[in-house]
Amino acid sequence: MNYIIVQAGGKGSRMQILTRNKPKALVPVNNLPMIFHLFRKYPEKKFIVIGDYKYDVLEHYLREFADVDYKLVCGSGHQGTCAGLKEALAYIPDNERFMLIWCDLVLPDEYEIPESANNIIGISKDFYCRWKYENGKFMEERCNQHGVAGHFIFTDKMVLDAVPEDGEFVRWLRDRGLTFEEQPLHKTKEYGLYSEWDNLPKMSCRPFNKIIIKGDKVIKEGIDNQGRKLAVTEVAWYKKLQGLSFDAIPTIYSYEPISMELIDGKNIYEYTYFSEEQKKYALEKIITCLKDVHSLESAPYDEVSYRDAYLDKTYDRLKKVRNLVPFANDSAVMVNGKVCRNIFYHQAEVERLVMQYAPQTFVLLHGDCTFSNIMLRHDRIPVLIDPRGYFGKTEFYGDVAYDWVKLYYSLFSNYDQFNLKRFSLDIGEKDVKLEISSNGWESLEDYFFELLDGDVTRLQMKILLAIIWFSLTTYAWEDYDSICGAFYNGLYYLEEALEMESAYSYFDKTMMQLEDALKGVSMADMDRLITECEATLKSGHKIIASGLGKNVPICEKFEGTMLSAGMDAQFLHTNSAVHGDMGMVKPGDLVIMLTKSGSTAESVYLFNLLKKREGVNLWLLSCNEHGTLAQTMEKKLIVPLEHEGDPWNIMPNNSTTLYLIILQQIAMQLIKRMDITLEMFKPNHPGGAIGAKLVNS
To answer: Considering the domain boundaries, does residue 644 fall inside one?
Structure first.
């Protein structure tokens, strides 16, 4: 028998919240989607999978993760367990024996396909079914000893040649009068009800190891390739720490397999009864313990490993789920009421943020110090377990922030509860709601940063936290909701990181704002102003810069630069001018009036007074071409500033910087045009470091 048809089209409404976002076939049972139990049991068979409810989710998920030969057909538009069967049968060759099975049936390891020339029906012996088959007859009667389990083997597809496109398959079989050879399905499980699933032991994402407890010892064995690979790095790490006489690890008795001390204590997240002070004490001990590890050895920084651990690995995983996760192709996603920018549209920005925190050196790491991998003995002494043992492509050593963000991952974002599937995900038509149960340690976030003051920053932890959540997506591939939840949580923390301006992005944004404004200044007007300043000085008159508020130090700097070069300049305070200081303004002088709005009452008043003075050359330096003075004054230099760069676009921030740049450039150009040499400058600046440098030049 080479073909298996899987009926996976039902809505799974009896599974309640488990099928809110995904079809029943993808509900995890023992950390594997239901349908994948069949794939693992029969990897060489050819599968025809009938989908309907959440068909697109099933389609994308199988495309990314199914490693068997399969064909997906759509039963949409039809009702009942007959839906899609006719189309599925078209892929079965003539005279070919095949199995038909419901996706919520998990066969035991002991099950074997019977060698028989008859049609076969699987009979439940351990769970109730709505139909029963006894003495060659179908009856619609609830039964757990002769139940019709949803498992059939047919000798030829012609047996089902008249199957309808709609309706209940078992009812149709009854009406057709078909008879079957019975096959008892001992130890088979059916997970059509939430209650059946809820009785399963709750497993974490990716349980790589089989754990056996023998007396006071724990024995760990890898159960898959990934588990066996991790066991190698774990053994190497333990051996290294033992060689360095580090004692905050379990006593190791043997290595193949790993046999270690059974710790008399719990994982950190299990201490739900700790008071705030007890949590602080424990956190201090944990951080001290990890710092002790980090201080043992160091290694040169390796950029390849740094990029691989944070960026390359993460992007590779994200690409795999981009077409699987709802909204993952949108530029922004609404997560828990927050509009979150999508990492796929901000990769360059994310890379800049991550790379700006590259360390000078690598240190010895644990590599996965979540609450799940740290225990406290009952005397509250930390014990480090389940080390990662590598960072990127580097064994043992890595970025110290990697350990701190893994700890932050548990303390602040409750990774351990998510890992135990204690979360709720509701993917709506336009938004996402994700709620994760709490470890109960979020209140210690500020204390975490206090203990690590100088070692990490909040922005650093927030951007790396987003990266860690993104990286979890395909690491948790067995559970569709975990994939989606990890992605959305990554987006949420990424948005928080992007909202916290880093120095790099702040400077970059500010430089763009300043550059755009300067490019908008008329070079013709700028040259005309410099030329008229030159003529003013050469005719024996002076340049006056006038302003008030935050423009005062800008005017004073211009005055100081001009005077140090031996050129006549003065500062006129806009308010003091009308109290006598206006007497400094003489015929032939050039006055540059600084005002961002160009409509300030004091500035307008001063202009109206100065324009009455004969021979005074008035210029406006403003950011508002529509201001009162811009509309009134003939001579003006307008700086088209779009944003001040402050949170509210109101504080004089970028505008004063631009005025300083422009006035200083005027001074520099005047030095050249007035033929002022270094020898002429020397006598004006004999003091300070500049004076000393001039003496020796």
So the answer is: yes
